[in-house]
Write a structure and sequence with these properties.
heterodimer, A: alpha+beta, four-stranded antiparallel beta sheet, 3 helices, 37% helix, globular, B: alpha/beta, eight-stranded mixed beta sheet, 16 helices, 33 strands
Chain lengths: 91, 655
């Protein structure tokens, strides 16, 4: 096994939010916290999740983008859609 | 753009009829059009707010102006935001000066102004193509969401940023999102663009995407989700002609936006392969790839280069660095007759494949080949036009073969629109030229034309769903060119729905389609069920309140086109149409695909009220199988004598 696993950026897609359009700052903070909790349950702690997540999609799209090891992404993908943060080209 | 709207609306420059969609739709007044792209050049006249009233109250967005190079918004350009964390997570590096929504590339400024830029008289590119630049919805408000940055490994825009852009744009209250970027065709659940677009459409926002520039390869079309409007690219009836004159008397039509040759005389002519450096291959040198040319052989001559090899190589730059006086860029076979006018860094002209063969044959036939390139000049009224650009990505749809993509084609070759003044049009470090308007070609350029029309329809019919707007745009498209013959492709062979979808956009017809094929979020979920997605995968898409129906057939997905994949003997397809015109009776006209019999039941539909919906069945029966044809094409049209509601039919009889 390699001494350092290669980390890549992934998107974890959780669907839509329960909150409506009239969302408060507290609601948005709550979303981010729920993302930390969700990822933390796979990584072992909320702090690790906080370090890994670089986008928390809070308004309409429910999900987050995080830097993960492949094994961690595979484990999460058993429960919800997970895909690589892939590049696209201008047309 | 300075000509494409006149071309699509069949109007003379400067003349706008009272019946034009522009007048009817108040030029897209107060619709908000966003793009996900490389940002915006806010100082462009295309985004001046002169004459604009207060910002619509529904707008909840903002302008991120937190760096020295930040973007200042106004009552026209009402939002500008940037998303770079996905780019940086992939290894992209940004410093504090370029971390802003300011466009230093040009692409985003070009696409946003094509969709919603102001009327700007006197726009031209180095004196050529002079006219009034304008977007499709010139009185719309615009917002830029920068999600694309300097390329890393050939990619500029990353899923994580694209999703962040969508999430923000939906929240901010935009009406139309124009997306001129994409990747390889991919599964809907593995694609941040498809997911972001789904959420936008769910919120009533029209999402228009470019089909890609991987044509003319079959199956190359990308952005194929059924909730997107997918746009191919075709030509205008304008060319920037720069003729190539050979000493043997041949005069070959080419196109260019370069400066003229310094001397009015013939120049020695050499091919890339003749000019090859010692360690280069003939093939690489013929394509004028980097470090393949010997400057001693090239100096002072016109260099003939073959198109292709690498999209990122500027052959004009290679020719100039080798000391060439000019360049003839010869299309390869795939590019055929599609010639693009670029602002090359040296005097140049791009010619067709057949003409390129003439040039090479001439070079090979004489010891002293000579040539001249005339100064470029703009010509309109070119025939045939439109024809499909060779680069425009083609169907069939490799993700869902039962769904025709692209949906439509629009002008995407030599489009003049606003540009960044942060860099030169060639993006070469030594090229110090700046131009507030520039030509660009690609499905990136055709996409915002459709976004502009969608903006007009949003103003005119605010109650229409994104699917209704798509239906209006596509069912009113035309498949004939300005010679009244069927539209052709870059090789001047008859084009098919795999390249143009329903056909070339007709904005004036789109405002009054008569009937529409509507779809809602549940229809899209049914589509995903029928595509075989597991219930557990569908849950995030469906908010948990949705159950797959017992029977869901892709064939019955209420898309305006009809695609039957792997037809064995016979199949029946159901569609429903909604009356958005006036009461009346529509009758069907059928054009059978080769070897297929098509019958429609009922053959007439009577509508007493606006909003009334009626269903009809289409039965397709195999009569014989064409050995050489994997796909055959036909169509059906509902008409009340005033409206013509067209649906292409695509059938494959092979599994």
């Amino acid at each position: 096994a390699p001494a350092f696993a290669i980390k890549k950026s992934y998107i974890v897609y959780l669907g839509s939010h329960a909150h409506g359009p009239q969302v408060t700052t507290a609601d948005l903070d709550g979303v981010t916290e729920s993302h930390y909790e969700f990822l933390g349950s796979f990584l072992g702690s909320k702090d690790k999740a906080r370090d890994a997540i670089f986008y928390s999609y809070k308004r309409h799209i429910n999900g987050f983008a995080a830097t993960l090891e492949e094994e961690e992404a595979d484990e999460i993908a058993k429960h919800v859609p997970v895909f690589l943060n892939k590049g696209k080209k201008l047309h | 753009t300075t000509h494409s709207w006149d071309f699509m609306l069949l109007e003379k420059e400067g003349v706008i009829h009272s019946s034009s969609v522009w007048n009817q739709a108040r030029f897209g007044e107060d619709t908000i059009i966003a793009n996900l792209d490389t940002g915006v050049w806010p100082e462009s006249d295309s985004f001046s707010d002169k004459g604009f009233g207060p910002i619509p109250s529904k707008w909840k967005g903002k302008c991120e102006d937190d760096t020295p190079t930040g973007v200042k918004c106004n009552r026209k350009l009402i939002g500008a935001r940037y998303f770079n964390k996905g780019y940086e997570a992939y290894g992209g590096k940004l410093n504090s000066t370029n971390k802003s929504a300011r466009d230093d590339e040009g692409h985003g400024t070009h696409t946003l102004s094509t969709a919603g830029g102001n009327f700007v008289p006197g726009a031209n590119v180095f004196g050529l193509g002079n006219g009034t630049a304008k977007g499709g919805s010139p009185k719309a408000r615009v917002a830029a969401y920068k999600v694309c940055w300097a390329p890393i490994n050939g990619s500029e825009c990353f899923d994580a940023d694209i999703m962040a852009g969508f999430d923000a744009a939906i929240h901010d209250g935009v009406d139309v999102i124009s997306v001129s970027l994409g990747g390889d065709p991919t599964d809907y659940f593995n694609d941040g663009l498809a997911i972001g677009a789904f959420h936008a459409v769910k919120n009533g926002i029209v999402v228009v995407c470019s089909a890609g520039n991987s044509g003319p390869i079959d199956g190359s079309v990308s952005n194929v989700a059924p909730w997107m409007i997918t746009v191919g690219a075709s030509t205008l009836d304008r060319e920037f002609q720069a003729f190539v004159e050979l000493r043997n008397g041949k005069r070959l039509k080419g196109t260019s936006l370069s400066r003229p040759l310094p001397k009015d005389t013939f120049y020695p002519l050499i091919s890339g392969s003749q000019a090859k450096a010692a360690d280069a291959t003939d093939e690489d040198a013929l394509r004028c790839l980097p470090e393949t040319l010997d400057p001693k052989k090239v100096k002072g001559k016109i260099l003939a280069c073959l198109r292709g090899g690498s999209a990122r190589v500027d052959k004009g730059y290679q020719a100039l660095m080798a000391g060439a006086a000019g360049m003839i860029l010869c299309n390869d076979k795939l590019s055929g007759n599609e010639i693009i006018a670029d602002p090359h860094v040296l005097p140049a002209s791009q010619i067709t494949y057949e003409d390129g063969l003439e040039v090479i044959a001439y070079i090979d036939s004489t010891d002293d080949p000579l040539a001249y390139i005339t100064a470029p000049s703009a010509q309109t009224g070119i025939k045939p036009a439109p024809f499909m650009a060779s680069f425009s990505s083609r169907g069939p749809n490799t993700v869902t073969p039962q769904l025709l993509k692209p949906d439509i084609t629009a002008p995407g070759v030599n489009i003049i629109a606003a540009y960044t003044e942060a860099s030169s049009p060639t993006d070469e470090a030594f090229d110090k030229r700046k131009t507030p308007y520039n030509t660009e070609s690609g499905t990136s350029m055709s996409c915002p034309h459709v976004s502009g029309v969608a903006g007009l329809l949003k103003t005119l019919h605010p109650e229409w769903s994104p699917a209704a707007i798509r239906s209006a745009i596509v069912t009113t498209a035309r498949t004939r060119d300005n010679t009244m013959n069927p539209m052709v492709d870059g090789s001047f062979e008859e084009a098919t729905p795999f390249s143009y979808g329903h056909g070339h956009i007709r904005p004036n017809r789109a405002m009054d389609p008569g009937l529409i094929y509507d779809l809602n979020v549940n229809d899209y979920l049914d589509f995903l069920c029928a595509s075989g997605y597991r219930k557990t995968m569908l849950q995030p898409f469906s908010d948990g309140h949705y159950k797959c129906p017992q029977t869901a057939h892709l064939r019955d997905f209420n898309y305006p086109s009809i695609t039957v994949h792997a037809l064995e003997e016979s199949a029946t397809v159901t569609r429903r149409v909604k009356n958005v015109g006036s009461p009346g009776t529509y009758a069907v006209n059928i054009r059978n695909p080769l070897g297929i019999s098509v019958s429609v039941e009922p053959t007439t539909l009577t509508f007493k009220d606006v909003g009334e919906e009626k269903s009809y069945n289409v039965t397709l029966t195999v009569k014989w199988r064409e050995n050489d044809e994997a796909y055959v094409f036909g169509g059906l049209t509902w008409t009340d004598g005033k409206h013509y509601v067209r649906s292409p039919i695509v059938v494959s009889t092979e599994s």
